[in-house]
Amino acid sequence: MRIRVSTDTTDAEAQAIAEAMASQYRDDVTVVTDGGEEIGSASYDGGTDATTESEPDSELGPTAREETLLDEIDDILAGGPEKYKDQLPDQGKLFVRDRIDLWFGDDFLFEDGKFAAFDDWHPDGANTAEDDDDRLPADGLITGAAEFEGRDVHFMANDYTVKRGSMAAKGVEKFLRMQQRALKTGKPVLYLMDSSGGRIDQQTGFFANREGIGKYYYNHSMLSGRVPQICVLYGPCIAGAAYTPVFADFTVMVRDVSAMAIASPRMVEMVTGERIDLQELGGPDVHAQHSGSADLIAEDEEHARELVAQLIGYLPNNSDETPPRSDGQAPAASPDGIDAVVPQEPNKGYDMFDVIDRIVDAGSTLELRSEYGPEIITAFARIDGRPIGIVANQPAHRAGAIFPDAAEKAAEFIWTCDAYDIPLLYLCDTPGFMAGSQVEKDGILEQGKKMIYATSSATVPKQSVVVRKAYGAGIYAMSGPAYDPESVIGLPSGEIAIMGPEAAINAVYARKLAEIDDEEERKRMEQELREEYREDIDVHRMASEVVIDEIVPPSDLREELEARFAFYETVEKDLPDKKHGTVL
């Protein structure tokens, strides 16, 4: 170290400065004048001065006090009674600490509230043994932070070996703090759920309190659309515990081990007399096919992590950020085949994924709720590395007609994409909303209203492609010209009409045709009317009248969409100034 002093400093003063600085900063010191002349120096010999005594670092180590703390931490990390840990392999699931290691490994950052309820159970307090059911390490709920797939996240995880993952006062407080911190940090939340619900015998102090378990769902509501909330179910989540997965933006259930229900089978039997097992009551198949509450089904714990790793790659950290871009990839199949995939006949079925695979980046498609309302596809994908949400009619199921469950699924997906600034691609090939007494009972008008409302209110860039038929209110729900899309593109197979030719001719000309006695003449007239009608609804007529923006050769559709999504990436749309709409 060199110290510069003024030229009027004496040699004795310079030497004193050098020795003092060497001792203070434990370094060799040279004192020079402003002109660069050396007038004093001192070397640090590593010793101590006469007034300071200290032991070398090599002789220091944890004290008995720290050793006691480390033993206590080891006891907490061991979880609940060993007998319950021994049951986990037969149940097809991991001990919660091993699960956390699977998810985060070396990217685990820290845990909060490890000592929750410590004085209630620890041997120094309640004198509990290792297999005592009163062990309450971390109060059965682990919360903390970690890095997941390069993203900082908050997380919680139930410990099923502690009172079957049930929730009590201290665990509830940790859960609430984690949610409230997520509101402040703007980072995603992972819920790794395996809980039998509230700890009934300890409900005083956490059930109905202002800061009790009911506040979970208030916080879920505040977080909704602010940061992504992803829930994975590893076991039975009953009663209050079942609301977290349905409040989350995305829910993953693990086959054969997870379930969620408003009440346990035992309670159901008490209340209704119905005898039913848990999987029949609320297993993955129930929620994938019937309730629509499960977005994805994992085959095991490792698969659950893989699905969430894929899912989070489409999502921003919060509503202020844009979704993450990646390197673009060519489609898995050539766009040149699109026109051959789409039949000219409006009533002939085909798989819309054969079109999607020719538009989006190879390997980028993640379909959600595939078994619920399958006549509409809701999926994330990428075009040139840009995340998009796809809403597509699926002619391979129920001719692509929109049923109530499909409309509900589409509305919720559109709403979620809009919340997280994910552009939307609509691929339209539908005869419209389904008609009939049963769908009226099932709420086709109510659910159809929600889909149209979501499409109307979405402020993200929207591209709508009329792949083939767009009949009835189907063109409205699929972001047709009246719904403020950035573009409406037609393929040469496209048609837009109130209804298809057969139905229209039957509605308008049925009496006139019935008056024709000659069968051949009647068929000729019917064909002539059908052709005239199709001329009116043909996509060329729609383009000629500027109803749609462009007719695109199918083999160019990928490039066209790539250019349009890029161009409209920063488009801004305003909604009317109001508190909120009245449609839920």
TrEMBL record:
One of its GO terms (cellular component) is methylcrotonoyl-CoA carboxylase complex. Residues 337-577 form the CoA carboxyltransferase C-terminal domain. Residues 62-327 form the CoA carboxyltransferase N-terminal domain. One of its GO terms (biological process) is L-leucine catabolic process. GO terms for molecular function: methylcrotonoyl-CoA carboxylase activity. Gene3D superfamilies: 2-enoyl-CoA Hydratase, Chain A, domain 1 (3.90.226.10). This is Propionyl-CoA carboxylase. It comes from Natrinema altunense (strain JCM 12890 / CGMCC 1.3731 / AJ2).
